[in-house]
User: What shape does this take?
Amino acid sequence: MWSDRSSVVLSQACVIAFAAILLLVMIFAPALVSWLLDFSRADLRGTESYFFLTIYGGSMPAVLLLYSLFGLLRGLAAEEVFRQKNVEHLRRISWSCFSGSAICLLSTFYYMPWLAVAVAAGFMGLIVRVLKNVVERAVALQDEVDCTV
Assistant: This one.
């Protein structure tokens, strides 16, 4: 039977899988960039260093995002939902999305398809930011209830 606990464990496994994929992308970035340049019909020769800057620069917010997401899931597994720590995790996740979006937006100067990633990351950052505000308000209400009792 599928439970909330199973869902959290599956989510944690997915975060670990994405962390492994991110590590592989960072390790094999030279081969991936070379493949993309060979595969692309656009004339992208001479942009290798820009791709490396985008990949390695974007990896920093991605690592922070995955770390914060795992911390959020760990709190949920411990049944700590409306806690200030979760608000901090959500704040870091949203800023990681916005940072990744900015990196991708800057990268459009040499490769326009980064715009799609920039928009998606920015929109995800907005969604997480709104969720952070909701949880932050819930934490305040929970604290108020706890002080009343």
In short: The mean pLDDT is 94. The chain has one domain: 4-148. DSSP finds five helices and no strands in the chain. The two ends are 36 Å apart (CA to CA).
